[in-house]
């Protein structure tokens, strides 16, 4: 397995596959309009990346960086490539790309009453196997609450807030109204 990452634009040969995977992989309340993601990806601190195994489309990731913090806003592996080690390898590629950064991501909180409870446990265990740990922070937007997981040590809440504000801009930041609180 030899993964490579390429920047995505609307003219990229895999744009339709990425768009389809994006809409299939994330609930509507977690989807930022794809054109906005592409526009934001023109900024030097944002990477919208297609993931390949040699020439085979595997998935995509969307990364936002501020100082020594990289936020995995999205990562998705195509159904034909799941359970083959690509997710773990993609996370390793992200760590290699940002070796000195704390890397964070959000997952749905573990809730025994959720209809996808088992999937939430499986997802959390996957990230733990790949070196992530709970940060003791919860991320909450207008729609949901997520557990913040981190690779590479403790995260500064103010830096995470600054990253979100830098990405969203003041107007969108006020619309999303993200809150980061301690879960302990």
At CATH level 2, the architecture is: 3-Layer(aba) Sandwich
* Secondary-structure content class: alpha+beta
Shape: globular
Mean pLDDT: 92
Separation of the first and last Cα atoms: 40 Å
Order of helices and strands: EHHEEEHEHEEHE
> According to CATH, what is the topology?
Aminopeptidase
CATH class placement: Alpha Beta
Largest sheet: 8 strands, mixed
The tally of domains stands at 1
Going across the biggest sheet, name each strand in turn.
1-2-3-4-5-7-6-8
Gyration radius (Cα, Å) is 16 Å
Annotated CATH homologous superfamily:
Gcn5-related N-acetyltransferase (GNAT)
Structure report:
The chain has helices at 15-25, 34-40, 86-97, 117-129, 157-176; strands spanning 3-7, 46-53, 56-66, 69-77, 102-108, 133-140, 145-151, 179-182. The longest helix is centred in the C-terminal third of the chain and has 20 residues, at 157-176. It starts with a strand and ends with a strand. The protein has one domain: Gcn5-related N-acetyltransferase (GNAT) (Aminopeptidase, 3-Layer(aba) Sandwich). The protein has 184 residues and is of the alpha+beta class. A hairpin with a 2-residue loop joins β2 and β3 (56-66). The chain has an 8-stranded mixed beta sheet, sandwiched between helices. The model has no long low-confidence stretch (mean pLDDT 92).
């Amino acid at each position: 397995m030899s993964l490579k990452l390429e920047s995505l634009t609307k003219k990229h040969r895999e744009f339709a596959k990425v768009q389809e995977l994006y809409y299939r992989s994330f609930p509507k309340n977690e989807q930022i309009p794809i054109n906005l993601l592409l526009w934001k990806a023109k900024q030097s601190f944002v990477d919208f990346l297609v993931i390949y195994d040699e020439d085979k489309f595997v998935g995509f990731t969307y990364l936002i960086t501020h100082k020594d913090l990289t936020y995995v806003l999205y990562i998705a592996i195509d159904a034909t490539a799941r359970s083959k080690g690509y997710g773990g390898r993609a996370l390793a590629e992200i760590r290699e790309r940002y070796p000195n950064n704390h890397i964070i991501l959000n997952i749905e909180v573990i809730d025994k009453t959720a209809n996808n409870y088992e999937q939430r446990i499986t997802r959390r265990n996957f990230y733990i196997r790949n070196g992530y740990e709970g940060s003791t922070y919860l991320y909450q937007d207008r729609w949901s609450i997520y557990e913040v997981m981190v690779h590479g040590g403790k995260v500064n809440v103010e830096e995470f807030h600054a990253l979100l504000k830098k990405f969203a801009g003041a107007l969108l930041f006020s619309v999303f109204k993200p809150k980061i609180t301690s879960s302990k």
